[in-house]
Prior knowledge:
Protein name: DedA family protein
Subcellular location: Cell membrane
Family: Belongs to the DedA family.
Transmembrane segments: 15-46, 53-74, 109-134, 141-162, 174-193
Number of strands: 0
Mean pLDDT: 76
Low-confidence stretches: none
Organism: Streptomyces asiaticus subsp. ignotus
Distance between the termini: 94 Å
Structural class: mainly alpha
Order of helices and strands: HHHHHHHHHH
Radius of gyration: 21 Å
Amino acid sequence: MHIEEWLETVPAVSVYLLVGIVIGLESLGIPLPGEIVLVSATLLAASQDHINPYILGTCAVAGAVIGDSIGYLIGRKGGQPLLAWLGRKFPKHFSAEHVATAERSFQKWGMWAVFVGRFIALLRIFAGPLAGVLRMPYWKFLIANVLGGIVWAGGTTAVIYSLGKVAEDWLKRFSWLGLVLALLFGLGSMMVMKWRSKKAKAAAVTAADSETAEPEPVPAGD
Length: 222
């Protein structure tokens, strides 16, 4: 069976559920490739008429907002011990350095760290639970959460779908290539965040060394 024929047999409801669940779990604090899934599903919608982009975008927004809200409640109840537990379970994502980077972002931007974090792979996982741990007022969190979910999920769906329709003929012949490009985009964003985390860690180590260094003795005057 040709790949195009196989894609036509994929039930639309399964695509909607997959997008909503994966994005919801990622927003809740579980490291999953939500952005890759959303981009891939939107490219699929651009080449398959039975997948409605409006329903797809709505499911993505709902998953983002609901997942972040659940993550907030879990973080508010679990507190700092929750971050320690996540660090042991997912050391690559919830290491002390990553947590410190996220906390600095919240200290700098406040409630808008939730909004901005929706567009950054690392903060997208942290935003909900960390906002709860830091006891951000829920009304502030909710405003930034809803706005971030609509702009990120809805905007991504609209932009990728529009680009996909423009290149529809190309996508029909090379649909697998669109998925590869989406994967490379997601991996690239992860590498950038990893590089920023290492840079922040090196700066913290340098600052700690300078604080602990003993001052040189001052020669006594004649």
